[in-house]
Amino acid sequence: MYSIYVYKRQCRSRISFRHNFYQACALFPDTITLPDMSTIKSMLLLGALILFQTLQGQDQPFEIQGSLSGAFHGKIYLFFDNHYRQKDSIGAAIIDGKFHFSGRVVLPVLCRIHMDQRSYIQDFYIDGKVTHIICSNKVEIREKEGAVPDTLNKLEILTVDGSATESAKRGFEQWVAQLRQSGGGDEEKSRRHADSLRAFVAQHPGNKASAYLLGEASDLRWGHAKTILQMIDTSLSGTYEYKTAAKLIDHLYKEDRIAGGVPFHDLVLYDTSGRPVDSRQFRGNYVLVEFWASWCGPCMESIPSLRSLYEKNKGNHFVILGVSWDYNKNNWKKAIIKTGMPWSQVIDHDEHNGRLAEYYALDHIPTNILLDPSGKILGNELSMEEIQKLLPRADGNAGVSR
């Protein structure tokens, strides 16, 4: 374990310091004054800190001893952090269910392992000279008509010994898994998750596991996640884990913009004739903002359902605003004519670098946002049935139209 290794080095340094110092006192009694105990402790602490900082950022030897049960063949591969382009560069043969990796790397580091061919990628931390892991693997054969079957290796890490960082990470992950299986609403679970992660980070502000666990906490509210990130030691700001956590927080910030009750981000886009369309012109209606593209198969398949929803509700203060991600305007216009979509259409340029897509962190289509007559968001990613339930009936009451 890394911490024990450093402690032993500190002890050796302490013995050597005292031995040499008192030898000097015996030789030059009139020129050396013995420091008091508090001064000695301060000097020792400074020495330990210098030693720790010297080791930080330097390659150190590591060894991973692993065992693998279940079906497998070929090799198992290792790479670090997010270096996916190098994921097949370090391989180890599996002999009698055993494998072994060794080398030098800056510790602690996030290790990722996978089997050859198609495989789950599993990760764990190492922070000392020797780490022992026990894994299992299941091979799943996926038949394809008229083609060679796909083989998927469902690799799983069962235990990791010799890594304090991984032990802390796994302990918290197990608690989160139990939280997600427990009763209670999503908001309550998110709050409890944030409270526990805040306490974990307070105890381990300089531990990579703190940033890793925050980067995995996609259920947190943006404000909670931002506060926790600020608690993490700035020495980690250049690490893969910290950058991942920062990206998640940016995504959560954009997700908060799409929450129910938040005013829609109004802007002007352009229709098929190049005329400006201001989203505010639809005030007083329920507006379904439907994101789509002519090149998107599922989008085109959903048009009959959208048309049915539109025809059923168009006389009851309901409109659809189609927002295209097309990068070819001619294909966009042809698709509108071919499908006969009767609702308003605008284009948000540059696929998911478009202004609305960027603002709301949208990364797939089809998707939608439903607005109430005042321009506030009622929901997003809604099915046709969910949309219908949120629209007023012909008698003016909320619920399914008749």
Q: Describe it for me?
A:
The strands form 4 sheets. Strands 4-1-8-9-6 form a 5-stranded mixed beta sheet. It has helices at residues 2-27, 37-55, 164-181, 186-203, 208-215, 222-231, 240-256, 297-313, 329-339, 355-359, 384-390; strands spanning 59-70, 75-80, 90-93, 98-106, 109-115, 118-119, 122-126, 130-144, 147-161, 268-270, 276-278, 286-292, 318-324, 344-347, 367-371, 377-380. The protein has 4 domains: 2-55, no CATH class; 59-162, Immunoglobulin-like, CATH 2.60.40; 169-256; 268-390, Glutaredoxin (3-Layer(aba) Sandwich), CATH 3.40.30.10. α1 crosses α2 (37-55). A hairpin with a 2-residue loop joins β8 (130-144) and β9 (147-161). It has 11 helices and 16 strands. It is α/β, with parallel strands linked by helices and 402 residues long.
Summarize the structure.
It is built from 11 helices and 16 strands. 39% of the residues lie in helices and 27% in strands.
